[in-house]
Amino acid sequence: MIGEKVRIVIAEDQTMVLGALARLLAIEDDFEVVATATDGQKALEAVREHRPDILLTDIEMPGMTGLDLARIAREADAAFRVIIITTYDRGGYLRRALAAGVRGYLLKDSPIEELGEAIRTVARGGRAIAPELAAAAWDNSDDPLSDRDRLVLRLAEEGHSNKAIGKMLSLSPGTVRNYLSEAASKLGASGRIEASRIARENGWL
């Protein structure tokens, strides 16, 4: 990367935050923001079109999460590397991010200088993890949820009925109910609401 600009795609669903990040990074002589996106699907289209070095993304976005994008990149053996910048400071999220192939994980209240150095480090092939989260990731309990548990629980948390979730996922309402019951059981919860709360608190959702 010596002598070349680090090409960056930024994915962030909050327009004001997205604009601020793009302007701040564009000031750096060795960075080039080649595209921005406000949801996961647009971010995926942007990285396929522009082939950046770095995808800078939040975790929670409409359509596709930052962790989904990282997983797709890893499975496709894509050349770009993913850095998560988020408000989620729980160890469970970091562990899931690392498992998905994320190379950097920073909090949104980090100084812009720290973000810049993280981008340079990851572009060179290294890792950049917020130091205050590193220990928490390993102290956190193992995630008991499967990807399907997580998806169904997330949709239920959004207020969708079992029938509506079944239509989205081509499952019967009874099967959806079973998934929700199983997720609650794994978390020691009395129902879907408590299960969502426990999963959120641990960074598993």
Automatic annotation (TrEMBL):
<dbReference type="InterPro" id="IPR011006">
    <property type="entry name" value="CheY-like_superfamily"/>
</dbReference>
<dbReference type="InterPro" id="IPR016032">
    <property type="entry name" value="Sig_transdc_resp-reg_C-effctor"/>
</dbReference>
<dbReference type="InterPro" id="IPR036388">
    <property type="entry name" value="WH-like_DNA-bd_sf"/>
</dbReference>
<feature type="modified residue" description="4-aspartylphosphate">
    <location>
        <position position="58"/>
    </location>
</feature>
<dbReference type="InterPro" id="IPR039420">
    <property type="entry name" value="WalR-like"/>
</dbReference>
<keyword id="KW-0238">DNA-binding</keyword>
<protein>
    <submittedName>
        <fullName>Response regulator transcription factor</fullName>
    </submittedName>
</protein>
<dbReference type="InterPro" id="IPR001789">
    <property type="entry name" value="Sig_transdc_resp-reg_receiver"/>
</dbReference>
<keyword id="KW-0597">Phosphoprotein</keyword>
<dbReference type="Pfam" id="PF00072">
    <property type="entry name" value="Response_reg"/>
</dbReference>
<feature type="domain" description="HTH luxR-type">
    <location>
        <begin position="138"/>
        <end position="203"/>
    </location>
</feature>
<dbReference type="InterPro" id="IPR000792">
    <property type="entry name" value="Tscrpt_reg_LuxR_C"/>
</dbReference>
<dbReference type="Pfam" id="PF00196">
    <property type="entry name" value="GerE"/>
</dbReference>
<feature type="domain" description="Response regulatory">
    <location>
        <begin position="7"/>
        <end position="123"/>
    </location>
</feature>
